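Troubleshooting log. The previous structure file for this entry was overwritten by mistake, so regenerating from the original sequence record. Sequence copied from the archived sheet and checked twice against the printout by T.R.
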Amino acid sequence: MLFRSIPVAATQHSREVAEADAKPQDNHLLDKTLKRAVDKGYLHPGEAQVAARKVMALSEKYKFQPDDFARLTLMESGGMNPKASNGQCHGIIQFCDGASRGAAAVGLANNPRAILGMGLLQQLELVDAYFDHVGLAESPKSVRDRKSTRLNS
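Regenerated output below.
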């Protein structure tokens, strides 16, 4: 009888591990940052899930943790504020003015302030284009390390 219970217990444990692995990743900070973006009016409530899915897709494509992206936006724009600007850098990750800087990398070299007229979802598309432009998909760096790549581009 004892030998029969071991495989059952092992099977149950394996099933629990598989179920835990199949559950959506806990992205507490991303969820909190998106909720804050909705509360601040940066994002329509109906768009929060779309934004979350987009960040998740970016995280898979560029190999970073979604919460790290949330941290980056908190530092750069106060948490996904598409209207954030310091006069030279604009948007949720602060695309900077200049011929070989962030705004130019996403096709806005001649009008970088146009970023401020884009919503958060549109700017996530720019983030994708920018990360692709600077080759982050091939880079083993964390998103925190990538911040310096972004700032120096």
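Strands lie at 89-90, 95-96. Archived copy saved in two places this time.
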